[in-house]
Specification:
Blueprint (H helix, E strand, L loop, with lengths): L13 H13 L2 E2 L6 E3 L5 H8 L2 H4 L11 H17 L2 E8 L2 E11 L4 E8 L8 H16 L4 E6 L4 H9 L3 E9 L5 E10 H7 L3
Parallel strand pairs: 5-6
Antiparallel strand pairs: 1-2, 2-3, 3-4, 4-5, 6-8, 7-8
Helix pairs in contact: 2-4
The structure holds coenzyme A.
The site of coenzyme A has 22 residues, from strand 5, helix 5 and helix 6.
């Protein structure tokens, strides 16, 4: 999502790069729970636009299209389908009927066995511990299913829930970078990282 992240860049052998790309290409759901998020398709664009249009959802997220229109959201989904084919990105949604209740945007840097998770929950579900639980499950899945060594996350200075979530899950603060939005504007982002070994030590189950 941004050239300035991840902070930790340790080159991994070609065999691992291939394995990570294959893993990204093969997954269809984020996890194995019955209600696990599924890959977004172009048909999701109208419902995804409705979900993303709330500023409580889109304002903190630098990687979303600007302006948000059905065409730009369709292009966002299409871009992720291309990234999946390359083994470098995944876009998941979850919801009921035609209503989206959450999305997850995973970027992968196979050469460094590194990844980033972005996303949001429907505002009616905020502040009940669901974001932290869902994020913890997603990070564990990224280490296991995508075979990553490090996860790098960012949040704006104003995004206190995400900051508390990342600090609470044991991520280490790594300073500040500039995140460039798709429309070329920039914002300051705080950065966190956690390695697979630290994750497994802190979250043994
Ligand atoms: C980030 C997000 C997923 C968090 O989900 P959530 O279910 O509301 O979060 P939780 O209830 O698990 O709370 C996480 C922490 O933030 C705190 N928090 C939640 N809402 C808060 C608020 N409005 N103000 C201050 N702190 C808040 C919680 O107390 C908790 O901290 P604690 O564990 O130290 O008590 C959700 O707020 C969201 O979708 N936001 C919009 C998009 C976004 O910011 N995405 C992340 C960047 S990509």
């Amino acid at each position: 999502m941004a050239d300035s992240i991840p902070i930790t860049r340790i080159n991994v052998p070609a065999s691992r790069i291939r394995a990570i790309r294959s893993a990204v290409r093969e997954v269809t759901h984020l996890g194995s729970a019955p209600d696990a998020s599924r890959l977004a398709t172009l048909d999701d664009a109208p419902a995804l636009l409705a979900f993303l249009s709330d500023p409580a959802v889109h304002a903190p997220i630098y990687s979303l299209p600007r302006p948000l229109t059905e065409a730009s959201v369709r292009a966002f989904v299409q871009e992720h389908l291309v990234q999946r084919t390359a083994g470098e990105g995944l876009l998941f949604v979850r919801g009921e009927a035609d209503v989206i209740l959450g999305y997850s945007d995973i970027q992968v840097w196979p050469q460094w066995a590194a990844g980033e998770l972005g996303g949001a929950l429907h505002p009616s579900l905020h502040h009940q511990g669901r974001g932290s639980r869902g994020a913890a499950e997603s990070f564990a899945w990224m280490f296991e299913a995508l075979q990553l060594d490090v996860i790098c996350e960012t949040a704006s200075h104003e995004n206190v829930p995400t900051q508390r979530m990342l600090d609470g899950l044991g991520f280490t603060r790594k300073g500040e970078v500039e995140s460039v939005r798709p429309d070329g504007t920039a914002r300051a982002s705080l950065v966190w990282e956690i390695t697979r070994s630290d994750w497994l030590r802190l979250h043994p189950n």
